[in-house]
Design brief:
The chain is an alpha+beta fold. The chain has a single domain, classed as RutC-like (60s Ribosomal Protein L30, Chain: A, 2-Layer Sandwich). Helices cover 26% and strands 32% of the residues. The protein has 2 helices and 6 strands. It has a 6-stranded mixed β-sheet with strand order 1-2-3-6-4-5, covered by helices on one side. Strand 2 and strand 3 form a beta hairpin. Helix 1 packs parallel to helix 2. The radius of gyration is 14 Å and the shape is globular.
């Protein structure tokens, strides 16, 4: 059985199947903030979704990060490294990308175990 959360006409924010949680791309609600602020918002959204599924960031299997400007990479990493629990850094990929809204600086897609 597939369990979907916050189902819309275009996408669901999260789906759970066979003990794995799949999150849609998470972006900042307040696009006026800099990369650090947006990254903190995205990570808080990930925490909240994972909690709803009954899991947490220690069980992230993979994170894909899309960043608008590679000059923001060090600041993104500083926020990320403060957020990830020691010994639980997941596999991760970061790529430069044009995001759907010009004010978005970062988007993250997470897959986690339950």
């Amino acid at each position: 059985m597939v369990q979907r959360f916050d189902v819309g006409t275009r996408l669901s924010e999260m789906a759970v199947h066979n003990g794995v949680c799949y999150l849609a791309g998470q972006v900042a609600a307040d696009g006026s903030q800099d990369i650090s602020g947006q990254t903190q918002q995205v990570l808080a959204a990930i925490d909240a979704l994972l909690a709803r599924a009954g899991t947490d960031k220690r069980k992230i299997l993979m994170c894909q990060i899309y960043i608008k400007d590679l000059a923001d990479f060090p600041a993104l990493n500083a926020v990320w490294e403060a957020w990830v629990p020691a010994g639980h850094a997941p596999p991760r990929a970061t790529v430069q990308a044009n995001l759907a809204k010009p004010e978005w600086r970062v988007e993250m897609v997470v897959t986690a175990a339950l």
